[in-house]
Design a protein that fits this description.
By secondary structure, the chain is mainly alpha-helical. Helices cover 71% and strands 0% of the residues. It is rod-shaped and about 115 Å long. One of its GO terms (cellular component) is nucleus.
């Protein structure tokens, strides 16, 4: 006969002794999930800000193009007035 206890003689497992949220593995997983959530949030904010900045740059380029055309037109008018 062996000294190993049979399944019938083992005490029942008490799940209340170790709560899942108290295990180091779960604590690490919780922290990693929180970091992932924060990273995802920051990534989304960064993409939105980059899109906004891209729109502003497009508007600025359009305004500069219009100013350059107006300057050329003004120079032509000034040259015509001199002659």
């Amino acid at each position: 006969m062996s000294n190993d206890p049979s399944p019938e003689t083992l005490p029942p497992i008490d799940d209340t002794q170790t709560k899942p949220e108290e295990t180091p593995k779960n604590a690490v997983e919780t922290v990693l999930q929180q970091l992932k959530d924060k990273f995802d949030d920051l990534s989304s904010q960064l993409v939105l800000k980059m899109d906004d900045m891209g729109s502003r740059i497009d508007t600025l380029e359009k305004s500069l193009g219009e100013l350059m055309q107006q300057t050329v037109s003004d120079e032509i008018i000034i040259e015509e007035a001199k002659t």
